[in-house]
Design brief:
This protein has 9 helices and 10 strands. By secondary structure, the chain is α+β, with helices and mostly antiparallel strands. The strands form 2 sheets. Strands 3-10-9-8-4-5-7-6 form an 8-stranded mixed sheet, sandwiched between helices.
Amino acid sequence: MAELKEIKQNVYNALKELGLSELEIKLYTISLLLGPSSLSTLAKHLGISRPNVYKIINGLERHGLVKFSDRKKYARTFMVESPTTVLEKLRKKRDKSEELDYQFTAIMPDLITLYRQGETSTKIKVLEGKEQFLKLYDAILEEAQGQTEFFGSLTDAINATSLEQQKEWGVKRARKGIKLRSLILPSKELESLRGINKKMLREIRFLKNIESFPASFQIFANKVIIWQPKVPLAILIEDENLVKMFRNIFETFWKQADA
C-alpha cells in the first residue's frame, strides 16, 4: 500500500486538475480521512470558523463532491463523495479534452487558411536536437493544409532521425490525407522511391545538375523549416513573403526535375 504522504499528494494533484481551490482540497482530504464529521470538527481541523467551512462546502458542492447524512439539519454530518467520483470526473474531463483536441485538430487547416500574418513581425525559431526535429514533424501534421513540400537531401534528413521514424511519420501523414511532394538529391539508395506512390500520397522527383548538399527545407501552411541535419538544427520561419520565395524556388525546380 502506498504511503499516506504519497496518497495525499496524488489526491491533491487530482483535485487540482479538477479546479478545486487549496482550501477545498484540504477540506476534501480531511473529510476523506475523518469520515462523516460535524462541521465543528471540520472547522477545528481546518483552523477556521464554521461560517467559512460552509463557504468551502459550497465550493465543493459546485464540483459535485459533497454529501450530508440524512439526519435533521442541525444534527447532520458532512462527508465528501468517494474517490471513485473524483476518478470518474477526471476521466470525463480527459474525454472532453480529447474530444476538443480532436475537433480543433480537424479544423486546423481551415484556421491556418483564415489566419493572416498581415503587418505582424516575422517569427523565427531556432531548434536543436533530434527531439526538436520530431516535434517539428508533428507540427507539420497538425498544420499542413493538405500538402507539404520537401526540398533537399532526404538521406541526411533520415540520418538526423531514423528510417523507422521517417516511415512512421509517412504513415501518419497519409492517414491524415496530407500529400507530400519531395524534390531530393539523386541517390542510388533512394532510386526506388522515384515517381508517384498514390497509396502514400507521395510524389518524388530528383534534382538534376545541382551540387550535393546536406541541408533541406520544407514548406507547410504559412511556414518553412530549414533543416540542417548535421548539427542537427532546424530554423522555423513564419513569414508570408519568405514562404512565398521558398515556394517559388520549389516550383521552379519541380518543373525542371526528373520525374
